[in-house]
User: Fold LysR family transcriptional regulator from Salinicola corii.
Amino acid sequence: MFHQRQLQAFVRTAELASFTRAAKEIHLSQPALSYLIRKLEGELGIALFARNTRTVVLTEGGALFLGHARRILADMSLALDDTRNVRELEQGKFTVAGLPSVASSLLPRTIAAFRKRHPKVTVVLRDGLADQVHQWVSRGEVDMGLGSPLQRDRELDFQPLFHDDLLLITPPRVVRRSESPWYGLDQMPYIAMTPGSSARHYADLAMEHAGRQVAPTWEVSFMSSAIAMVRAKLGYALLPASSVDVFNLDDITRLPVNMREPREIGILRRKPLHASPALEAFLRQLRKQIPSTDDPAPDENGSASPA
Assistant:
């Protein structure tokens, strides 16, 4: 197959009608230029030039091939420019999937910071339940997912980022530090997230660890619905700590819950691992946005305890 240098030599020789001037313009010796032309003619199986001592004239086949050669060189130049732009983050596109808890907190902050530095790169965001995020990553529908490893999948790579604790969300009440966060909830309805969500999976584990065998009175798909129901004093809920930052919980009591198995949030990607320059830059920005583990935990009134 012919190469870019061969095409450049042919096009400039045809345009200048001179081997000598073409060789000088593309910084080659005349013998080197002639070799490239002969090699190209050999690969095409036709003579491109009718040569004599005075002039260089295109043959019929050469004239026909000239337009193709110009288009091939233009396409090569465009491909190189596009590749360079991707490398230098002047263009690009990738898709990120995340659980509702991180899609409403961590991911918007990360995307905003990334777009500020790389405004020409397009970021597509999809939010869904844990099993949906896993499916999207496994099928290659998204470039990465941010979620929890509900099951082991040999085709997926999981890189842990942080532990997302659960908070017990209840109508306003007073709970002494010496008392269990579950104190006084025996007669209060339980508002659960729908099955299939990682929030529900870890809430079930937390309930089991606390020795509570309570069937949900309501099951809702959105955390905003659960919070609204708690605010209306219809029951209590267990929600990821990472999600509550986006809601106004001043009139709601929230308490940390001890968990035997912490809810781990991390990066899900399909194997073998490959990331575009834009996605690599996004992953670096994502890690900068991870909340510090030194942040104070909320007390029984919903405010942060002093360090």
The radius of gyration is 32 Å. The CA atoms of residues 178 and 300 lie 11 Å apart. DSSP finds ten helices and twelve strands in the chain.
